[in-house]
Amino acid sequence: MKVFLYDGTFEGLLSALYLGLRAGTDDLRIEAEDAHQPALFDEPIFHPTDEALADRLFALIRQEMSPMTLRHVYRLHLSEKPDAGTLLLPFLQLGFRIGPGINGLVTHPQVHPVLTMSRQVSRESHRLLGLLRFQELKGGLLYARYEPDFHQTPLIAPHFSQRMSSHPWIIHDLRRELAACWDTRQWVLRDLPAAETPDISSDEQELQQLWQAYFQHIAIRQRANPTVQRSFMPKKYWKHLVEKPGTMS
Amino acid sequence: MQLSEKLNILAESAKYDVSCSSSGSRRKNTPGGIGNAAAAGICHSWSDDGRCISLLKILMTNDCLYDCAYCVNRRSNDIPRASFTPRELADLTIAFYLRNYIEGLFLSAAIRHSPDKTMEDMVEMLRLLREEHRFNGYIHVKAIPGADPLLIAQAGRLADRMSVNIELPSERSLHLLAPQKKRENILLPMGQICQGILQRREEKRRYRQASDFVPAGQSTQLMIGASPETDRQILRLSQGLYRKFQMKRVYYSAYMAVNTSSLLPVPGGPPPMLREHRLYQADWLLRFYHFDAEELLQDEAPQLDLLLDPKCMWALRNPEIFPIEINRADYQALLRIPGIGPTSARRIISSRRYGPLTFDSLKRTGAVLKRARYFITCQGKYAGGRDFDPRRIHGLLTAEETFAQQGYQGIQLSLEDLLHQETPATTEKKSPSVILSRFNDLPSVTSAILSPLPVTDSPPPASGPALKSPLMLPVKGGLLSHEGFSL
């Protein structure tokens, strides 16, 4: 089977998809170069990113389908799943045939997996808007660390840039060693090693203790319900929370 | 008194308020300001009782003039008392907000000197947050019954949501349990807020610049199980509140007996949480499924069924409209099917434009086929067993629900325990049937699985004999279909 490889960027994915759509075949996989695991009869072909093709497809999806469809494509890219590109190819083929209705075709076998994956990504983003925790560093910078399943930083940074517009902050993805940095005017994504442990401000510890105590006192003992707590707030996120769930004495 | 001590006391006093929603407002951040509101609302944590923490839910003071029989903060209770100054609480809110612990503030207060003085302090607190700290996050504030309408109006201009708690669902109970509160004093601010919201909506239509007034609407809370009102009375009250006062939400709070009183349930008993859950389900049916309270509960059976959800019960009482053909029914009809909600109904409609749905594609809409299959046909085919017989279906759904409520958790626990004990070394995955074969010589576990199934000892559904069709029992994960268990 033919496999189109790209460099792992969103533009790379779009240009590979463009070429895949032009090839007009179903018998094709589209994978990031790093994630590609060659099988016996694979014919991998690397396509360098072509910005012009990427822009073209970007505009076409928005025009022929909808901005919502474009959002699905972007979320699938951020999911970093190895089969994201391969799922998108038949999805977009169908999209060019039926237009904006593609977003509503939830039960179609070529649409359903795309929408499901897109929903997984957006569900985690929404959760993280609530579960991200900032600490105040010496000098007043707000710093948050987290380890999301998907590459969430580009999705959640705009939210915090509006909400905390007059405070500089850093959102640090330890798993990918990337950080979004906001200087009160714009945010940029840059590499940041996970090992660094910054100094916290003098008030920080006391405030964290206040929050921990509040968290304990707001729970009603007779209604203890760890199952529900965990289904909304899975344990994998607890590591970077300030409060200590599951410790009701 | 230390800040931490105050926070603990006043959180403890606030925790019986249920509302914690932060949705419905689109307040934008301003240059140099802090915060904004997300229309969908954001939950920031879940406490150990499984309730979401979205807002900093806190009282300004728990020092109360009133002596309501049900309330933990009543005057005659010997509990520690504390009060925040507006500045202390404003600073704390901002500090928590910047760390992304909370979405905003839910401010309430006990009546310390007079309703007016209490409301004045709260308005001052909000003014401090909005004007000095330029805080644009979400604020939910209680309207104090009996406070001056001018103060309520001021609070409404600063807050995103307001609420007046009714707590006791009838005037008689109110008179008995909270003699210092008057029905008029509760309804008056409610009416005022409702009028204010409607009026501002009209103004906004003409001038987009008009300032906000309680943009996220108002809510209220009813206590369940402290007084003798039936579910029917409660639901009719809620429906009235939704229609007359345009309430965004009515919250239900299973009464936790905190005080000893001859008028109330004894302390120590479990709160009626399942009843609370059923009321919420019924409430959703009123708000999103276009049901009427009269359809859900009749005079002769004024309580919601604890075993089956209100929609299933309604469907079984109205068998003549079922089964419904999924490929032809309109949105309203789809909403009436147990297991199908607004989201799956919309998905069904948008995807059947491109061709008829099968049971297989129906699964992908998110419909809960476990319940829905008894009430639908798909291209004329029925997948709910023999035929559409409400009595049979009632038996099946009841068995399944009992299993879920009592039995299933029991199995899960014993299953894990056993596996840890017996096979510490193996890591291979086991299919349910392999795991189950371990139980064959473990009588205690088998009885734990088998006892809750009410095949023979459940009360006969509606009229007619109890059903005995063990083979038809729907079973989670196929556990009981294994030959090790003969029913």
Automatic annotation (TrEMBL), chain A:
Domain DUF4130: 83-243
Name of the protein in question: Probable DNA metabolism protein
From TrEMBL, chain B:
Organism, scientific name: Anoxynatronum buryatiense
InterPro entries xref list: Aldolase_TIM, DNA_rSAM_put, Endo/Exo/Phosphatase_dom_1, rSAM, rSAM_sf, RuvA_2-like
Single GO MF annotation: iron-sulfur cluster binding
Keyword Disulfide bond tagged: no
Superkingdom per UniProt: Bacteria
Annotated protein name in UniProt: DNA modification/repair radical SAM protein
Keywords for this protein: Iron, Iron-sulfur, Metal-binding, S-adenosyl-L-methionine
Keyword Iron: yes
